[in-house]
Q: What sequence folds into this?
C-alpha cells in the first residue's frame, strides 16, 4: 500500500472526524466532510490509498462507527497513529480499515511524506526520508479480516467463523 501522509495531532476525536452536522446522511456524504472542523476541504485533498497519521488517542470520544467508515469511504487506505481509542480500533477492524499503531509516528512522518506500508513485514517505508518504521504486527486473524474487506465479508467467505489460514 502506497500513498501520501496527512498528519494530525493528538486527541483527534470522532466529532472532528465525522462532524455531527452530517449525521443521518449517507456515509458517502459524511466522507465528503471528514475532519472538516479541523481541516476544511480535507476530503478534496486526498487520493485513494493515502494515509491519515496522528498522535495519541486517535478516534477518542463517542463510539460512532461512522468515523472509520467515513475515513474509508473517503479513500484513506490506512490510519497510522501512536495510539487509538479501543472502540475506534475495533470499529476499524470490523469494516476492514487498517489501523496501525506506530510509536512516535508523528516524530518520523511529516505532512506530504510518501509512505509504503508492508503488512507482511510490519514496516512502513518513508520514501521521502528513507526511514523505515516498525508497527505492531497485526494478529493473523485481524489481517484476514482486512484481506477480506471487513468482518462481514470475511463471514460471507467463511461462514464457519473466524479461522487462521495456513
A:
Amino acid at each position: 500500500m502506497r500513498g501520501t501522509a496527512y498528519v494530525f495531532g493528538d486527541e483527534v476525536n470522532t466529532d472532528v472526524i465525522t462532524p455531527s452536522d452530517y449525521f443521518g446522511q449517507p456515509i458517502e456524504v459524511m466522507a465528503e466532510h471528514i475532519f472538516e472542523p479541523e481541516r476544511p476541504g480535507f476530503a478534496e485533498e486526498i487520493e485513494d490509498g493515502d494515509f491519515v497519521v496522528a498522535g495519541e488517542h486517535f478516534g477518542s470520544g463517542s463510539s460512532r462507527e461512522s468515523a472509520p467508515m467515513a475515513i474509508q469511504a473517503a479513500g484513506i487506505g490506512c490510519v497510522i497513529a501512536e495510539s487509538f481509542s479501543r472502540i475506534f480500533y475495533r470499529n476499524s477492524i470490523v469494516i476492514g480499515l487498517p489501523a496501525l499503531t506506530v510509536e512516535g509516528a508523528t516524530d518520523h512522518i511529516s505532512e506530504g511524506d510518501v509512505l509504503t506500508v508492508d503488512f507482511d513485514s510490519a514496516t512502513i517505508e518513508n520514501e521521502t526520508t528513507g526511514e523505515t518504521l516498525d508497527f505492531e504486527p497485526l494478529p493473523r486473524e485481524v489481517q484476514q479480516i482486512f484481506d477480506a474487506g471487513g468482518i462481514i465479508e470475511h463471514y460471507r467467505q467463511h461462514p464457519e467463523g473466524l479461522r487462521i489460514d495456513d
Q: What stands out?
A: The longest strand covers residues 2-7. Strands lie at 2-7, 51-54, 78-81, 99-101, 114-118, 123-126, 132-134. Residues 49 and 77 are 4 Å apart (CA to CA).
